[in-house]
Automatic annotation (TrEMBL), chains A, B:
<dbReference type="GO" id="GO:0003677">
    <property type="term" value="F:DNA binding"/>
</dbReference>
<keyword id="KW-0805">Transcription regulation</keyword>
<dbReference type="GO" id="GO:0003700">
    <property type="term" value="F:DNA-binding transcription factor activity"/>
</dbReference>
<feature type="domain" description="HTH merR-type">
    <location>
        <begin position="1"/>
        <end position="70"/>
    </location>
</feature>
<dbReference type="Pfam" id="PF00376">
    <property type="entry name" value="MerR"/>
</dbReference>
<dbReference type="InterPro" id="IPR000551">
    <property type="entry name" value="MerR-type_HTH_dom"/>
</dbReference>
<dbReference type="InterPro" id="IPR047057">
    <property type="entry name" value="MerR_fam"/>
</dbReference>
<dbReference type="InterPro" id="IPR009061">
    <property type="entry name" value="DNA-bd_dom_put_sf"/>
</dbReference>
<dbReference type="InterPro" id="IPR015358">
    <property type="entry name" value="Tscrpt_reg_MerR_DNA-bd"/>
</dbReference>
<dbReference type="Pfam" id="PF09278">
    <property type="entry name" value="MerR-DNA-bind"/>
</dbReference>
<keyword id="KW-0804">Transcription</keyword>
<protein>
    <recommendedName>
        <fullName>HTH merR-type domain-containing protein</fullName>
    </recommendedName>
</protein>
<keyword id="KW-0238">DNA-binding</keyword>
Length: 147, 147
DNA sequence: TCTTGAAGCTATAGGTACTAGAGACATTAG
DNA sequence: CTAATGTCTCTAGTACCTATAGCTTCAAGA
Protein backbone atom coordinates (compact mmCIF):
# COMPACT_ATOMS: atom_id res chain seq x y z
CA UNK A 1 0.00 0.00 0.00
CA UNK A 2 1.29 3.40 -1.03
CA UNK A 3 0.63 6.82 0.38
CA UNK A 4 -0.48 9.47 -2.04
CA UNK A 5 2.99 10.94 -2.35
CA UNK A 6 4.61 7.64 -3.25
CA UNK A 7 1.84 6.90 -5.69
CA UNK A 8 2.39 10.27 -7.31
CA UNK A 9 6.07 9.57 -7.74
CA UNK A 10 5.41 6.07 -9.02
CA UNK A 11 2.93 7.24 -11.63
CA UNK A 12 4.42 10.62 -12.46
CA UNK A 13 1.35 12.51 -11.29
CA UNK A 14 1.31 15.35 -8.80
CA UNK A 15 -0.42 14.80 -5.50
CA UNK A 16 -3.16 17.43 -5.95
CA UNK A 17 -3.90 15.96 -9.34
CA UNK A 18 -4.54 12.57 -7.78
CA UNK A 19 -6.95 14.10 -5.32
CA UNK A 20 -8.59 15.94 -8.19
CA UNK A 21 -9.06 12.71 -10.12
CA UNK A 22 -10.66 11.20 -7.07
CA UNK A 23 -12.92 14.22 -6.68
CA UNK A 24 -14.24 13.94 -10.22
CA UNK A 25 -14.71 10.20 -9.86
CA UNK A 26 -11.94 9.07 -12.17
CA UNK A 27 -10.21 7.26 -9.32
CA UNK A 28 -12.22 5.37 -6.69
CA UNK A 29 -12.10 6.57 -3.11
CA UNK A 30 -9.18 4.70 -1.57
CA UNK A 31 -8.87 3.12 1.82
CA UNK A 32 -7.62 5.31 4.63
CA UNK A 33 -5.02 4.73 7.28
CA UNK A 34 -5.78 5.07 10.99
CA UNK A 35 -4.69 8.69 10.64
CA UNK A 36 -7.05 9.32 7.71
CA UNK A 37 -4.41 9.24 5.01
CA UNK A 38 -5.15 7.72 1.63
CA UNK A 39 -3.64 4.30 0.94
CA UNK A 40 -3.44 2.89 -2.58
CA UNK A 41 -3.10 -0.66 -3.78
CA UNK A 42 -1.60 -1.97 -7.00
CA UNK A 43 -4.94 -1.77 -8.80
CA UNK A 44 -5.22 1.94 -8.12
CA UNK A 45 -1.66 2.35 -9.31
CA UNK A 46 -2.45 0.66 -12.60
CA UNK A 47 -5.51 2.77 -13.04
CA UNK A 48 -3.62 5.98 -12.43
CA UNK A 49 -0.88 4.89 -14.81
CA UNK A 50 -3.51 4.29 -17.44
CA UNK A 51 -4.99 7.74 -16.91
CA UNK A 52 -1.60 9.32 -16.98
CA UNK A 53 -0.61 7.64 -20.18
CA UNK A 54 -3.86 8.53 -21.90
CA UNK A 55 -3.43 12.15 -20.80
CA UNK A 56 0.08 12.10 -22.24
CA UNK A 57 -1.48 11.02 -25.50
CA UNK A 58 -3.84 13.97 -25.30
CA UNK A 59 -7.09 12.17 -24.51
CA UNK A 60 -9.56 14.37 -22.63
CA UNK A 61 -10.63 13.18 -19.21
CA UNK A 62 -14.12 12.30 -20.39
CA UNK A 63 -12.69 10.03 -23.07
CA UNK A 64 -10.45 8.47 -20.46
CA UNK A 65 -13.44 7.86 -18.26
CA UNK A 66 -15.04 5.92 -21.11
CA UNK A 67 -11.86 4.00 -21.88
CA UNK A 68 -11.51 3.00 -18.25
CA UNK A 69 -15.02 1.68 -18.04
CA UNK A 70 -14.43 -0.24 -21.26
CA UNK A 71 -11.26 -1.77 -19.92
CA UNK A 72 -13.27 -3.01 -16.96
CA UNK A 73 -15.35 -5.20 -19.30
CA UNK A 74 -12.69 -7.22 -21.16
CA UNK A 75 -15.10 -9.62 -22.84
CA UNK A 76 -16.82 -6.89 -24.88
CA UNK A 77 -15.87 -5.99 -28.42
CA UNK A 78 -13.34 -3.21 -28.56
CA UNK A 79 -15.02 -1.18 -31.28
CA UNK A 80 -16.00 1.56 -28.83
CA UNK A 81 -12.43 1.91 -27.65
CA UNK A 82 -11.18 2.12 -31.19
CA UNK A 83 -13.74 4.81 -31.97
CA UNK A 84 -12.48 6.91 -29.08
CA UNK A 85 -8.90 6.53 -30.21
CA UNK A 86 -9.81 7.31 -33.80
CA UNK A 87 -11.63 10.45 -32.74
CA UNK A 88 -8.63 11.50 -30.76
CA UNK A 89 -6.44 10.91 -33.80
CA UNK A 90 -8.74 13.10 -35.89
CA UNK A 91 -8.60 15.84 -33.30
CA UNK A 92 -4.82 15.67 -33.25
CA UNK A 93 -4.63 15.81 -37.03
CA UNK A 94 -6.95 18.79 -37.16
CA UNK A 95 -4.87 20.64 -34.63
CA UNK A 96 -1.69 19.88 -36.52
CA UNK A 97 -3.22 21.21 -39.73
CA UNK A 98 -4.31 24.40 -38.09
CA UNK A 99 -1.02 24.95 -36.31
CA UNK A 100 0.94 24.33 -39.49
CA UNK A 101 -1.01 27.08 -41.21
CA UNK A 102 -0.34 29.41 -38.29
CA UNK A 103 3.33 28.54 -38.40
CA UNK A 104 3.53 29.56 -42.06
CA UNK A 105 1.83 32.89 -41.42
CA UNK A 106 3.99 33.66 -38.44
CA UNK A 107 7.17 32.81 -40.29
CA UNK A 108 6.18 34.97 -43.18
CA UNK A 109 5.37 38.02 -41.14
CA UNK A 110 8.50 37.69 -39.08
CA UNK A 111 10.87 37.31 -42.01
CA UNK A 112 9.25 40.20 -43.85
CA UNK A 113 9.83 42.63 -41.02
CA UNK A 114 12.49 45.22 -41.84
CA UNK A 115 13.44 45.69 -38.16
CA UNK A 116 12.64 49.38 -38.19
CA UNK A 117 9.95 51.21 -36.23
CA UNK A 118 6.54 49.97 -35.20
CA UNK A 119 5.04 52.16 -37.91
CA UNK A 120 6.70 49.99 -40.57
CA UNK A 121 6.67 46.68 -38.71
CA UNK A 122 5.29 43.94 -40.85
CA UNK A 123 4.15 42.00 -37.80
CA UNK A 124 1.91 44.83 -36.62
CA UNK A 125 0.83 45.53 -40.16
CA UNK A 126 -0.28 41.99 -40.87
CA UNK A 127 -2.06 41.69 -37.55
CA UNK A 128 -3.97 44.83 -38.47
CA UNK A 129 -5.14 43.40 -41.74
CA UNK A 130 -5.88 39.79 -42.54
CA UNK A 131 -5.84 40.62 -46.26
CA UNK A 132 -2.07 40.75 -45.94
CA UNK A 133 -2.08 37.12 -44.90
CA UNK A 134 -1.61 34.26 -47.25
CA UNK A 135 -4.67 32.08 -47.57
CA UNK A 136 -3.40 29.89 -44.76
CA UNK A 137 -5.32 30.36 -41.55
CA UNK A 138 -9.06 30.75 -41.37
CA UNK A 139 -10.34 33.99 -40.00
CA UNK A 140 -13.97 33.08 -39.62
CA UNK A 141 -15.09 36.42 -41.03
CA UNK A 142 -13.40 39.45 -42.51
CA UNK A 143 -11.17 41.33 -40.13
CA UNK A 144 -10.60 44.06 -42.65
CA UNK A 145 -12.34 47.32 -41.94
CA UNK A 146 -13.65 49.80 -44.44
CA UNK A 147 -10.76 52.08 -45.42
CA UNK B 1 -21.19 54.40 -34.59
CA UNK B 2 -22.01 50.72 -34.23
CA UNK B 3 -23.94 48.89 -31.56
CA UNK B 4 -22.24 45.91 -30.00
CA UNK B 5 -24.14 43.46 -32.19
CA UNK B 6 -23.13 45.15 -35.44
CA UNK B 7 -19.57 45.42 -34.23
CA UNK B 8 -19.57 41.74 -33.44
CA UNK B 9 -20.73 40.88 -36.93
CA UNK B 10 -18.28 43.30 -38.51
CA UNK B 11 -15.33 41.85 -36.64
CA UNK B 12 -16.44 38.24 -36.41
CA UNK B 13 -16.51 38.26 -32.62
CA UNK B 14 -19.42 37.22 -30.44
CA UNK B 15 -21.13 39.84 -28.34
CA UNK B 16 -20.27 38.36 -24.93
CA UNK B 17 -16.67 38.13 -26.04
CA UNK B 18 -16.59 41.86 -26.77
CA UNK B 19 -17.95 42.60 -23.34
CA UNK B 20 -15.38 40.23 -21.89
CA UNK B 21 -12.55 42.03 -23.68
CA UNK B 22 -13.83 45.28 -22.26
CA UNK B 23 -13.99 43.77 -18.80
CA UNK B 24 -10.38 42.68 -18.87
CA UNK B 25 -9.27 46.02 -20.26
CA UNK B 26 -8.35 44.88 -23.74
CA UNK B 27 -10.94 47.21 -25.26
CA UNK B 28 -11.53 50.67 -23.80
CA UNK B 29 -14.90 51.43 -22.27
CA UNK B 30 -16.96 52.77 -25.15
CA UNK B 31 -19.40 55.65 -25.23
CA UNK B 32 -22.97 54.85 -24.34
CA UNK B 33 -26.24 55.82 -25.95
CA UNK B 34 -28.98 57.64 -24.06
CA UNK B 35 -30.38 54.22 -23.22
CA UNK B 36 -27.02 52.98 -21.86
CA UNK B 37 -26.08 50.86 -24.86
CA UNK B 38 -22.49 50.65 -26.01
CA UNK B 39 -21.57 52.58 -29.16
CA UNK B 40 -18.34 51.90 -31.03
CA UNK B 41 -16.41 54.07 -33.46
CA UNK B 42 -14.06 53.03 -36.25
CA UNK B 43 -11.06 53.06 -33.93
CA UNK B 44 -12.66 50.50 -31.65
CA UNK B 45 -13.52 48.44 -34.69
CA UNK B 46 -9.90 48.42 -35.83
CA UNK B 47 -8.74 47.49 -32.38
CA UNK B 48 -11.15 44.60 -32.17
CA UNK B 49 -10.17 43.40 -35.64
CA UNK B 50 -6.55 43.44 -34.53
CA UNK B 51 -7.38 41.40 -31.44
CA UNK B 52 -9.43 38.96 -33.43
CA UNK B 53 -6.75 38.44 -36.00
CA UNK B 54 -4.08 37.92 -33.39
CA UNK B 55 -6.32 35.39 -31.62
CA UNK B 56 -6.80 33.60 -34.93
CA UNK B 57 -3.04 33.34 -35.11
CA UNK B 58 -3.01 31.83 -31.65
CA UNK B 59 -1.52 34.72 -29.67
CA UNK B 60 -2.57 34.65 -26.02
CA UNK B 61 -4.47 37.66 -24.77
CA UNK B 62 -1.57 38.93 -22.69
CA UNK B 63 0.65 38.96 -25.76
CA UNK B 64 -2.08 40.80 -27.63
CA UNK B 65 -2.26 43.34 -24.87
CA UNK B 66 1.44 44.01 -25.34
CA UNK B 67 1.17 44.13 -29.12
CA UNK B 68 -1.67 46.63 -28.88
CA UNK B 69 0.24 48.93 -26.62
CA UNK B 70 3.21 48.70 -28.97
CA UNK B 71 1.07 49.57 -31.95
CA UNK B 72 0.02 52.70 -30.09
CA UNK B 73 3.62 53.95 -30.13
CA UNK B 74 4.48 53.80 -33.85
CA UNK B 75 7.79 55.68 -33.58
CA UNK B 76 9.43 53.03 -31.38
CA UNK B 77 11.59 50.25 -32.70
CA UNK B 78 9.62 47.13 -33.42
CA UNK B 79 12.00 44.68 -31.79
CA UNK B 80 9.61 43.99 -28.95
CA UNK B 81 6.82 43.14 -31.35
CA UNK B 82 9.06 40.82 -33.27
CA UNK B 83 10.08 39.08 -30.07
CA UNK B 84 6.45 38.41 -29.21
CA UNK B 85 5.78 37.01 -32.66
CA UNK B 86 8.91 34.88 -32.55
CA UNK B 87 7.93 33.45 -29.18
CA UNK B 88 4.53 32.62 -30.56
CA UNK B 89 6.17 30.90 -33.50
CA UNK B 90 8.29 28.83 -31.15
CA UNK B 91 5.23 27.85 -29.14
CA UNK B 92 3.44 26.81 -32.30
CA UNK B 93 6.40 24.77 -33.48
CA UNK B 94 6.67 23.03 -30.14
CA UNK B 95 3.02 22.12 -30.19
CA UNK B 96 3.29 20.80 -33.71
CA UNK B 97 6.22 18.62 -32.72
CA UNK B 98 4.38 17.19 -29.75
CA UNK B 99 1.19 16.59 -31.68
CA UNK B 100 3.05 14.90 -34.49
CA UNK B 101 4.52 12.44 -32.03
CA UNK B 102 1.07 11.78 -30.59
CA UNK B 103 -0.31 11.26 -34.05
CA UNK B 104 2.26 8.58 -34.76
CA UNK B 105 1.49 6.74 -31.52
CA UNK B 106 -2.24 6.90 -32.05
CA UNK B 107 -1.98 5.68 -35.63
CA UNK B 108 0.18 2.81 -34.55
CA UNK B 109 -2.07 1.61 -31.78
CA UNK B 110 -5.16 1.92 -33.94
CA UNK B 111 -3.78 0.03 -36.89
CA UNK B 112 -2.43 -2.70 -34.64
CA UNK B 113 -5.82 -3.44 -33.12
CA UNK B 114 -7.25 -6.78 -34.25
CA UNK B 115 -10.87 -5.61 -33.77
CA UNK B 116 -11.63 -8.33 -31.30
CA UNK B 117 -12.52 -8.00 -27.64
CA UNK B 118 -11.34 -5.44 -25.14
CA UNK B 119 -9.12 -8.09 -23.61
CA UNK B 120 -7.03 -8.19 -26.79
CA UNK B 121 -7.47 -4.58 -27.90
CA UNK B 122 -4.17 -3.02 -28.73
CA UNK B 123 -5.51 0.43 -27.87
CA UNK B 124 -6.32 -0.55 -24.30
CA UNK B 125 -3.13 -2.54 -24.07
CA UNK B 126 -0.88 0.30 -25.13
CA UNK B 127 -2.65 2.76 -22.86
CA UNK B 128 -2.00 0.38 -20.01
CA UNK B 129 1.70 0.26 -20.69
CA UNK B 130 3.88 3.00 -22.08
CA UNK B 131 6.63 0.47 -22.75
CA UNK B 132 4.53 -0.66 -25.69
CA UNK B 133 4.85 2.79 -27.20
CA UNK B 134 7.45 3.80 -29.69
CA UNK B 135 9.85 6.37 -28.38
CA UNK B 136 7.65 9.12 -29.70
CA UNK B 137 5.81 10.95 -26.95
CA UNK B 138 7.31 11.89 -23.64
CA UNK B 139 5.79 10.34 -20.57
CA UNK B 140 7.49 12.40 -17.93
CA UNK B 141 8.13 9.38 -15.78
CA UNK B 142 7.58 5.67 -16.04
CA UNK B 143 3.96 4.62 -16.23
CA UNK B 144 4.87 1.00 -16.06
CA UNK B 145 4.11 -0.72 -12.82
CA UNK B 146 5.97 -3.52 -11.18
CA UNK B 147 4.59 -6.78 -12.60
C1' DT C 1 -49.76 55.24 -31.25
C1' DC C 2 -49.33 50.81 -29.66
C1' DT C 3 -47.24 46.49 -29.75
C1' DT C 4 -44.21 42.99 -30.38
C1' DG C 5 -39.87 40.90 -31.06
C1' DA C 6 -35.07 41.49 -31.30
C1' DA C 7 -31.19 43.28 -29.22
C1' DG C 8 -28.99 45.16 -25.26
C1' DC C 9 -27.96 45.47 -20.12
C1' DT C 10 -25.81 43.38 -15.54
C1' DA C 11 -24.40 39.70 -12.83
C1' DT C 12 -23.41 35.05 -12.04
C1' DA C 13 -22.00 30.46 -13.01
C1' DG C 14 -19.91 26.91 -15.78
C1' DG C 15 -16.39 24.45 -18.66
C1' DT C 16 -11.19 22.08 -18.91
C1' DA C 17 -7.58 20.25 -16.30
C1' DC C 18 -5.44 21.27 -13.16
C1' DT C 19 -2.29 24.39 -9.60
C1' DA C 20 -1.39 27.15 -5.48
C1' DG C 21 -2.15 28.44 -0.92
C1' DA C 22 -3.78 28.41 4.14
C1' DG C 23 -3.97 26.27 8.39
C1' DA C 24 -4.30 21.92 10.85
C1' DC C 25 -3.07 17.00 11.69
C1' DA C 26 0.06 12.63 10.90
C1' DT C 27 4.28 10.34 10.29
C1' DT C 28 9.09 9.56 10.48
C1' DA C 29 14.24 10.35 11.32
C1' DG C 30 17.52 11.62 14.48
C1' DC D 1 11.09 14.47 21.98
C1' DT D 2 11.53 17.41 18.44
C1' DA D 3 11.89 18.96 13.85
C1' DA D 4 10.98 18.19 9.25
C1' DT D 5 8.36 16.45 5.98
C1' DG D 6 3.96 14.61 4.36
C1' DT D 7 -0.98 14.72 4.27
C1' DC D 8 -5.60 16.54 5.33
C1' DT D 9 -9.65 19.81 3.77
C1' DC D 10 -11.11 23.83 1.62
C1' DT D 11 -10.92 27.77 -1.27
C1' DA D 12 -9.56 30.28 -5.10
C1' DG D 13 -7.07 31.02 -9.20
C1' DT D 14 -5.30 30.03 -14.25
C1' DA D 15 -7.02 30.99 -19.88
C1' DC D 16 -10.64 32.23 -22.68
C1' DC D 17 -14.49 32.43 -23.16
C1' DT D 18 -19.85 30.65 -23.14
C1' DA D 19 -24.40 30.30 -21.18
C1' DT D 20 -28.09 31.56 -18.34
C1' DA D 21 -31.49 34.63 -15.85
C1' DG D 22 -34.09 38.52 -15.48
C1' DC D 23 -34.38 42.90 -16.81
C1' DT D 24 -34.55 47.34 -20.12
C1' DT D 25 -34.25 49.59 -24.66
C1' DC D 26 -34.92 49.98 -29.50
C1' DA D 27 -36.92 49.59 -34.26
C1' DA D 28 -40.50 48.43 -37.18
C1' DG D 29 -45.22 46.98 -38.43
C1' DA D 30 -50.40 47.46 -37.73
ZN1 LIG E 1 8.93 44.34 -36.83
ZN1 LIG F 1 -4.77 36.45 -41.30
ZN1 LIG G 1 -9.36 -2.49 -30.39
ZN1 LIG H 1 3.36 5.96 -24.33
Amino acid sequence: MLTIGKLGIAAGVKVPTIRYYEQIGLLPTPDRSAGNQRLYNAKAQHRLAFIRHARDLGFPLEAIRDLLSLSDTPEQYCAAADVIATEQLSAVKARIARLTALQAELERMITQCAKGTIADCRVIEVLSDHELCGEGHGARTATRCAP
